Amino acid sequence: MFAAIERHDTTQLAELISNKMTDPFNEVTDRSAKLEKIQSGNARSRYEAAQDRFRAILAIAGVGLLLGLSMAAFAWHALRKSIASLLEEATGHFRAIADGNLNRRIDVRSRDEMGRMMEDLRMMQSRLRQALLSVRDGTQSISTATAQIPASNADLSQRTEEQATHMSEVVGVFQLPAQ
């Protein structure tokens, strides 16, 4: 074949190509086609596996996102319940105290910061009640003492008159005869 190429013998080259090269060429072509088919199948299966993994990861991410949002909503609700409702309750107690109601029951349901605030509010209410009772008792004592002053004045006045009468009698007994 190389000799035919060197001589530029196209007839012999055409005969060699058509008789001797066709079978090996066809075999190479067939094997190349089979290899291409195998590689294409492998690539397709890898692509489909990658797509399946992507879909699975996407689904897991979606579930994680929903789970995270659910947890955030639950946390928001729990915080709102534990803080906002207690603040509203405390505000109601402050209004009652401001309106003069010192008998409204203040319940302490926890030992956290909000519970300590409610405990302090209850203590403030109790001390205000004690102070009010002390002022009322003092006012009653003053009122009683004030009511006793006129009676004491009347008693003192009566005794003074009696003393004056006795003094007049004593003076009458000791009066010297007129000269």
Automatic annotation (TrEMBL):
Residues 81-133 form the HAMP domain. The chain crosses the membrane at residues 56-79. Pfam families: HAMP (PF00672). Coiled coil: none annotated. Keywords: Membrane, Methylation, Transmembrane, Transmembrane helix. It comes from the Bacteria. Signal peptide: none annotated. Belongs to the methyl-accepting chemotaxis (MCP) protein family. This is HAMP domain-containing protein. It comes from Paraburkholderia translucens. The lineage of its organism: Bacteria, Pseudomonadati, Pseudomonadota, Betaproteobacteria, Burkholderiales.
